[in-house]
# Entry
Amino acid sequence: MEKMASVSGIRTLIRIHHSLILQKSFRHSLLQLASTCITSRHCSGSNDPSLPSDTENKSLLENLSVLGVDIKMARQRQPGVLRKSFTNEICLAQFLQEKGASRKVIASIVSRYPRAITRSLDHLEERWQLWRNVFNTDAEIVSILDRSPESFFRSSDNDDLKKNIAFLISLGLNSKDLRRLLTTAPRTFSNTLELNKQMVEFLEDICLELGGKNPEQFATSIISKNVYLLIKSTKRVGTNINNLKTSLTLSDAELLALLQGKGVDILVLSNDCLKKNIHSLEKKMSVLGLKESDVKNLVLNYPNILYIGADTLNSKLDCLLKGGITIKQILEKPKVLDYSIQNITERLKELQRVGYDFEKNGINILDSSKKRFVAKIEKLSGVSEE
DNA sequence: ACGACCGGGGTCTGCCATCGCG
DNA sequence: CGCGATGGCAGACCCCGGTCGT
# Structure
């Protein structure tokens, strides 16, 4: 608190004493900042305004280099920022440092999203506070900025962010949902309110078209089930829904049930990818001698199968079939396809070692946690060895 | 005590294209 | 024209354990 007060005090001071002398003392304290890990109290505005606008700002470059910023990367990403006369890099660095970001993290953030240094302290503080309404600690926010600086800095519109959060809450998303949304898909919060609204309305319309009775609840529920929805385009989601419907000849009711259940996950796949996966699944099933209705039932029971890339799915199926499991068993318990090829391979080997009879015991053993699986194997090998 | 059933949890950015504005 | 803001895209699963019926 006191720190913040003193910072803005110094900003005022700087505005009053905007002189050449300050340039020098600022440079000095910036170097000090680097060596003593930020004790400086200066907010910038200290770069030479008389520079021609088509060349890079030398004093800015020096500041950035002292902060450990990868200038080459910054230049490649947002060259215009390096030509600006007035920037806020010291202010930003200090701000982030106070929030617990390390020097390395700060440098990485600015390197990857240079425009961050154009935000004012007031703006930063307000935006941070808005994010803090969703998170419990500064550390969580720092870790997201480190992961995805763009999500925090790309938009300069705090009012829109405020309205956006209010909008998400108004949908009935609880604080846990919001946290998951912001943690996993931080870009949701730098979307414009308008864009998020569009997606929500789009989902509600889909629900109504399919004969659903509660569009609001539908939208909220599938958004909370798949936090990536809001960072995808309505075009992508819509095309996927249409492709599912036509290629599997689903009725409205079937499609609605699919979307409300496990089917949400596949909506965010790229259009080509989903198309490819559907096609490849159909082909593989036909090679294995199955009917179209089998494919449809398989997808309805286990939509995630379409999330698995064509090559992976084919080798996974082959791996199971080679391991002595029938396609009929797989159709009955498709969840075994959830597990990695490596996992499946290892388990098949273990099961073969203890002489596990899939025909007698089924294949559910493959769909269990590692702990349970190991316990089971131990029991089985204990029995067979004694 | 056991296993089938079922739902939930982690995870996801960095780049490019376009538009409007000064 | 150059820049800031913003939309959109590619990539392409895996694993765990509570609970309930037997």
User: Anything to note?
Assistant: The longest helix of chain A spans residues 193-209. Residues 44 and 291 of chain A are 69 Å apart (CA to CA). DSSP finds 22 helices and no strands in chain A.
